[in-house]
Structures are given as C-alpha cells and as structure tokens.
Amino acid sequence: MSTTDEELATLFGKVGFDEAKSKEILKNKKVSLSLAQIINEVDADEPLSKSKTALLHNLATLVKGENLPKRELITRAIADERLTTNLQVSEAYKYIKEAKESSTEKDMNARSGVGVVITREQVDQEVAKYISDHKEEIETKRYSCVPALLGNIKALPQLKWASPALFKLVIDEQVLKLLGPKDERDVVKKEKKKKAKQPETATKQSAVTGEVKQRSMFSEGFLGDLHKPGENPQMWPELMKEHLKATGGRVFTRFPPEPNGYLHIGHSKAIMVNFGYAKYHDGVCYLRYDDTNPEAEEEKYFVSIKSMVEWLGFKPWKITYSSDYFDQLYELGERLIQVGKGYICHCTAQEVKLQRGMKEDGTPGGKRFACPHRERPVEESLQEFRNMRDGKYQSGEATLRMKQDLESPSPQMWDLVAYRVLNAPHHRTGDKWKIYPTYDFTHCLVDSFENISHSLCTTEFQLSRESYEWLCDVLHVYRPAQREYGRLNISGTILSKRKIAKLVNEGIVRGWDDPRLFTLEGIKRRGVPPGAILSFINTLGVTTSTTNIQASRFESAVRSYLDVTTPRLMMILDPVLCVIDNVDDTFEEEVAIPYKPGDSKLGNRSLTFTKEFYIDRSDYRDETSKDYFRLAPGQPVGLMKVPFTVSVSSVERDHNGEITKIHVNYDKVEGKPKKPKTYIQWIPKCTKQNSPVHIKETRIHNALFNSENPSSHPDGFTSDINKDSEEVITTAIVEPAFFDIKSRSPLNLPTVNEEFNIKEQPNTPESIRYQALRVGYFCVDKDTKGDKEIILNRIVTLKEDSSKD
C-alpha cells in the first residue's frame, strides 16, 4: 500500500487525477489514504473518466479513514457506472454504514437509485405541476423566489434521482414562460452602506507589462473568478507543458462566429467578453470563422463579422477558419475510430432520434438504445469513413458518430455525430471535401489546436462541456477549459436570423441593417456609437445568468453616452417663418453659441440673427395656458442666445387656416432685458454667408413591435409589427453649422471611462452625430447623396421635462 506523498501522487495520476487536484487531495492525509485504498479496489489499467475520479474522491471524503466493511460494493458500482452522481454515492455510503456486514449489492442498488431513470419529460411535468400549485406566490415574488423554488423542487421525492443539471435549466425555462423576461420589478436595490474612504479606485497590475489597470468587469464576478493560464485540469498532464510553451503563459481566447448571418446585439457581449478579457490580461484573441457548413455561408457575412469586430474597437490577433484545420480534423476522425470511440452509422435521422430516447410521438423520455452499427469492427468503420471521404455516399447515408455513454443523463453524451456527408463546394477548400465535421467535433479540437486557455461561451453550451472534454481526452490532445456565461437578450424585438430574414424578404424593414433592428449592422446604421455598446455591457457585468434587458434600458445607456460625446445643434422639424416687423430689412446680429454648453473642447459657432427666421410650428399657440411658456399672443419668448425676446404682432394663414407666417416684434430695451419664461430654437432664413440646411428625410424610428415578446403573438410575430415604427419627415431644417460638424466628424470625444473611447473611422455617415435641441439625437444615414439629399436617422429621443411644454 502506497503511503508517501510521492507514491500517492503517482497513483492518483495513474487513474486520471491531474497534478493540481492530486496536490489538493494530499493536503488531507485521511482522505488521501482512503482514496488510495479505493483506487486499488477499482484495479484500473488506464485513466478513468473525470466523472468517475470525482465520485471516487467524494467517496474518500465520506470515508475519511473509517474502516467501512463492504466498501468495495460502492467502489465497484462507481467503476461499472451504476452510481453516477454524488447523491447516489452518498446514499450508498449511508446504507453500507448502517447495514455493515449484512450489506448486499441488491439492497445498496435499491437505496441509491440504481436503474431509476428520471427523464427530462418527467422533470418538466413535475416542475410545471409545482409551479402551477404555487403560481400566485411566484407571480407575487417573481424572480426573487427562484432560489427557494430550486431548493424546494430538488427536495421533491419523485425527483430525487433526476440529473442535477436539469433542475435549473427547466425551472428557468418555465419561470420565464410564466413571468416573461426580467424587468425593473426584478431589480433589487440594495441599501448602500457607508464605507470608509478608500485611498483610490482598486487597481490591477499587469504581470506582463507592469501597467496598473482600473478595476472592470474583467476583474470581478464571473470573469474575475476564472482560472489562470495553466490551471485548467488535464487528463494528460504532459500536454499542459506543451500548451504553456506555445502560449508563454498568456491568456488565449477566441470569438468563433458561424458566417451564416449577421451579428446581433447579443454577439456584442461575446465579442467584448472574449476580446476584452484577453486584452485586459495582456493576452490575445483569435477571430475564428466556424465555416463547417458551406451550404449556409456567404462572403458578405465574413466581411460584416470582421467589420463589426473592428467597429467595436477590437483587433484580432489572428483571423483563422475552422476549414484551416480540415486535414487535421480528418486525421483525428480516423484516430477516434482507431481508439474504439467512433463508428460509422447508416441510420436515418429519425432512427437516430429514436436511439437517443425520442418516442414515436416525437416527445422525449423514451428508452435509449444503441445504433446497430455501434459495435462494428474498427477496420470496417475506418474503411467506411474513407468511403465517405471519397464520395461513395450521398448526404444522409452515413455519418461518423462518437461512441460515448448512452446511460449518461446528458444528451451531449448520446453518441453525437462527428462527421456528415455534404456534397457541397466550400468557399475556401473548393471540391476537396465530400464530408464536413460538425460543431461538436470541430469546436473543442480547433480550440485545442489554437491553444485556447479560456474557451468562453454562453450557457446554452453548458451541457456541451462534458462532450467537449470527453473528446479532447479520448483523442489525447490538450484540453482547453470551456466556461459559460449568461447571454444578453433584448426584449421587445427579435434576434432570430430566420425571423429577421422574413422581415427583410417581405419588405417590412429596409434590410438587415435597418435601424429598427438589433443586428449590429442596424445598430451601427442607427448611429449608436460603439463605445456606448461596450459601456452598456460593462454596466450589466458578466454572470452565469441570462440577462434580459428592455430596449428602453439600452436606449437610456446610449443616451447617457451621447450626452457626453455629441455637439448641440438647432433643428426644426416643422418650420414656420417669422418676420420681425420693427427692424429694417438689413437688420443683423451675430450670436455666438457653444457647441456644448459647459465644455469648451468643441468651441462655438456663429449664427446671424436676421429679420426673417424660422421656429418650429409646435412652439406657437394661439392661446396661452398656465403650463405653456412658449410663443403666444401676449406671451413673449426668448430665442436661444438672442439678447432680447420676441412677441407676436399678427399671424398669416392660408385658406385651410394653416399658419404660413408669424409677425413678431423684437423687444429690444435699454438696460438689462427681462428674462423670458423659456427659450426656443430658431434658424435664420437666409444670410449672405449661409442658409438653413434642408433635410430630404428625417427618419424617426420607434419600436418595431408593439409588445415585449413579439414571438408570442397568436398570429405570428409579423402581426405584432408597430405600424408607426418609422415616421419620415420631409420638412426639417438644421442650422448651417451642421456642415462644420460634418467636416470634423468623427469627433471621437473622450468619455468618463477611457476604456470606451473607441476611435471611429473617417468618412462614415453614422459617425456624423449631434444632439438636436429638444428633439433628439441624430446621425446621417448611408442613403444620403452629397449635401443636397441629406437623410438623417434619429438615434434616441431626449429626456425632457414635460413642464417645458
């Protein structure tokens, strides 16, 4: 029996514990000695799976040196995979401890739930029943009751042996269905405690450059808790040395989009997490196109993805393609077969679904069974795989499947497809390949080839982690660490490529970059600065929970960013001419107006106040009231930065009663002028130097859909379209300084957080932005043609006190 730490570490490594885990176990002498005894009972000739070693370690922590008779019953049950969860091991231990010498394998199996299968369908039904029974309480407490809900449902006797991984997944789905996405009602405002004054903002010092960094989303929460390079466990420890040699101990991440559509707002979080995390830790990030489905991929998507990454301020360390590794992937496909973990299957898609537990009626929860080709000889499968490669099969006639674990509770272990026949030319490899690897085969292996230290993805891939690690281990390659964070969803819109395509094809929107959509191309065209998106994501932080945000909250963040970074101009949507009756035709007064009050960086512009000028039609009323402060008979009004007020003398109208001209007096007085109740915008009709800028179209964008969940409309999401989602105004004018701002754009003004000062490229229409006073924030649209046909998009509205009306 091994007793020294060195001997114990060697024994632990032999069965699959990595070096770091072995060191941790050796800190407790009783546990490590018990584990050694248990391992000897297993009599393993090769490394065990990660799940088995974890269960053996759990048993050792329960035993802790205790002389437990018939303990080998538990050990054997772990080895032959009758016991697959910590709960089963714990129940088996309790039984053996109580029954001692009279323990039997049959009774232990019964006590620990061996052979009891709780399907996803059963969990769905029990959770639905529990939620229905407690519906009123859940609707009152909303998302705050989810932790208690999780604990109570786990304690249900009928779900005792259900896979622990299913509980949160099912509960989250059903609570979301009942309550809808989280909103402001679910934001818990914690009472702020007074803290002792800290010297300075917490900082982090780079291990590589020595640079001191401000705290950020990358140093806290989910991202702050991630492992350091080299700490991710390996079944084959020698591979970690090779990995660290290749990376120099730096963080290596990747952003791996499929080039079969345009990116949306949710992808901006993935881009920021992967590129930002690497940048924060002085590491590198790949842009890797996951181009394994040539039937759906188009050049325009490759171009757009790269453009959006760069627009958000990130530069890929390298741009790679999964297709770069097709030769290596094929070799590993053969190796999978050679090590007995892969086989060629000729079943139909429907037959495979049945094997994986789908019932004849299409519902889950049926008995799983093996493919009839699962045990075919290695050489036969190898030859068939080569036949697939050589084009001897048509699509659907043969697949390479992984030989995993059909008894596992995880669907990701039910013999996934690794390769399929696809007789389609590839945009980079041409007609070379007749077969293409699947995501489940490609993703983890290309991560391994590229020495990724942190494979960061969203939580819908959480179950995939098991198959990800399994495949790397059975192929004896470096195993990257996959870690999952919650995705970003925006309510009140749709992000599905299929549904957006329907909107585009039916002409409901202008295209994939319509400003009403939440594709990144659409958000960019709408005029949202890239720094505003990053700032918004930073405020949300990164956790393992899905973030469901109302569009109004996103717009509020954009508005705050624009408030700091845009100049102010006067813009009138519905102009009406005013004529000053009590001045000469040659009357002029020069007025200096700052582009941004309180901020001298942008300077001033000069505007000439003349006998004729425009105001907005909404700034005049025939009658006044106690809450109306703008122009009306008997009520003078101030014009922005003009020294004196103007007052109404008469009004001209057309035959329909529409006002065509307002005659006013300029109320110039000696001494200090009386301050008016409010000031309104104005634009001179024409001066020697310049004239108003006439806007061909001002596109006012509102929510594209009427509800928070368009997909739930009984007649389909297109029936939820807001008919007023776009209003086009053709009468707007802007003051002449518009052309000065245009010539100086992009202004790239600094923000409070330097991390989000993203420098935009010149000659881009969407970077020409300004705040139209009292109207909203606007940018130039790409449909603009020169200076004569200017088209504007409203980015977001202004927050305005209603009392000003």
From TrEMBL:
Q: Which family does it belong to?
A: Belongs to the class-I aminoacyl-tRNA synthetase family.
Query: Could you say which enzyme class this protein belongs to?
Result: ligase
Protein name per UniProt: glutamine--tRNA ligase
List each copy of the Glutamyl/glutaminyl-tRNA synthetase class Ib catalytic domain by range.
251-563
Annotated GO molecular function terms are:
ATP binding; glutamine-tRNA ligase activity
Identify the keywords attached in UniProt to this record, alphabetized.
Aminoacyl-tRNA synthetase, ATP-binding, Ligase, Nucleotide-binding, Protein biosynthesis
Q: List, alphabetically, the NCBIfam families matched.
A: glnS
Q: Which PROSITE patterns match?
A: AA_TRNA_LIGASE_I (PS00178)
EC number per UniProt? 6.1.1.18
State the signal peptide span.
none
Instruction: Spell out the SUPFAM superfamilies in the cross-references.
Output: Nucleotidylyl transferase, Ribosomal protein L25-like
> What InterPro entries does the database record attribute to this sequence?
aa-tRNA-synth_I_CS (IPR001412), Gln-tRNA-synth (IPR004514), Gln-tRNA-synth_Ib_RNA-bd_2 (IPR007638), Gln-tRNA-synth_Ib_RNA-bd_N (IPR007639), Gln-tRNA-synth_Ib_RNA-bd_N_1 (IPR042558), Gln-tRNA-synth_Ib_RNA-bd_N_2 (IPR042559), Gln/Glu-tRNA_Ligase (IPR050132), Glu/Gln-tRNA-synth (IPR000924)
Positions of the Glutamyl/glutaminyl-tRNA synthetase class Ib anti-codon binding domain: 567-667
Question: Which segments constitute the Glutaminyl-tRNA synthetase class Ib non-specific RNA-binding domain?
Answer: 6-164, 167-243
Q: State the reactions this protein catalyses.
A: tRNA(Gln) + L-glutamine + ATP = L-glutaminyl-tRNA(Gln) + AMP + diphosphate
Q: Which GO terms describe its biological process?
A: glutaminyl-tRNA aminoacylation
**Location of region: Disordered:** 187-210
Question: Which organism is this entry from?
Answer: Komagataella pastoris
Extract the Pfam families matched here.
tRNA-synt_1c (PF00749), tRNA-synt_1c_C (PF03950), tRNA_synt_1c_R1 (PF04558), tRNA_synt_1c_R2 (PF04557)
GO terms under cellular component = cytosol
Q: Cite the Gene3D superfamilies for this sequence.
A: 1.10.10.2420, Glutaminyl-tRNA synthetase, non-specific RNA binding region part 1, domain 1 (1.10.8.1290), HUPs (3.40.50.620), Ribosomal Protein L25, Chain P (2.40.240.10)
